[in-house]
Amino acid sequence: MWKTMVRRTLILIPQIFILSLLIFFIADFMPGDALSGLIQPDIDPARIEELREMHGLNDPWHIRYVRWIHGISQGDFGLSMQHHVSVLRIVGERLPNTIRLSIFTVILVYATSIPLGIIAGRYNATWKEKIISYYLYFGMSLPTIVFGFILLYFFGFLLGWFPISGSVDVRVLSDGWWAIQVSRIQHMVLPAAAMALLGAVGIVQFLRSEIVDNRNSDYVTTARAKGVPLKVLYNRHILRNSLLPMANGIGFVIVGLLSGTIFIEQVFGYPGMGQLFIQSINSRDFSLANFLIMFYAILTLLGALISDIALMVFDPRIRIK
User: Which residues, including other chains, have CB under 8 Å from residue 264's CB and lie 6 or more apart?
Assistant: First the structure.
């Protein structure tokens, strides 16, 4: 298993290199440059050209790419033209918010999907399964952004139960650590619910199908013929075998939530990586945008690696060639 994990990790190196080329070319072909978002009508064109020369924006693409990669190898990801600070500094201020939101969302996703999937599979073709099916139809037909606006309107504006923007209430910053954490959770409830309640739909469907398939399998029929109680079969065999394939998607669920916060953070005004990414694109802040695109791309590769490792950990018999 360790050899497989090392081999899968080493494969990431050429993949990341190819990704860096694609990301650089995409940014290079976009209209404008890193100074486009800062140009004002009263700026002298000669000054703009001077700034382009100073920042090396007029150099050939291969020289700019090598300079970019060389900076990355030394931990220098460039300067954000919009915020006038290093990229790592501005990302370091936003990343904890996105990580907290993603972890909270993952907890809600599995706390919702696993019980509902088990109930829908175990009580298939009953009124319980029908109610869950209505939830699944609702989740499949409603975009996450629209659902986010619905939650924001009802629970934020009308009822006032939860904050409608920000990540923490500035009025509690002097009230101690516990008050700050409670405020952060309150600010995360609506965006996390918008992603979790709809993100759990696929897991519920998958788990229900796995339970139904395992319940109709030959080993269950044989065990029932030998007098094994159905409750024992569910707890020791059917449920365990149904949950095992879900390990293959753990990494992609985490990565999907991290990248899925891009639009949800914009809807709820949550100051995280997603909101920062939208701002960097709108302002042509390519140093920041390139870093964030690279960040999400590497997360996708790591998600596949985490899924493979999780599958091997939960079932040591599996060896991925």
Answer: 144, 145, 148, 191, 194, 195, 270, 274
Q: Which of 4, 16, 3 is nearest to 301 (CA)?
A: 16
Q: Write the CB contacts of 177 (distance below 8 Å, at least 6 apart in sequence).
A: none
Residue 261: HSE in the Cβ half-sphere, 13 Å Cα cutoff? 34
Q: Which of 192, 217, 202 has the alpha carbon at shortest distance from 116? A: 202
Mean pLDDT of successive 10-residue stretches along the chain, which has 321 residues: 67 74 70 56 64 66 74 72 77 83 84 85 81 84 82 85 81 79 86 83 82 78 77 74 66 62 79 79 75 77 70 59 47
Distance CA 94, CA 101 (A): 11
Neighbours of 39 (CB within 10 A): 15
pTM for this entry: 0.72
Strand ranges inside the chain, DSSP E = none
What is the distance between the terminal CA atoms of the chain, rounded to a whole angstrom?
Answer: 10
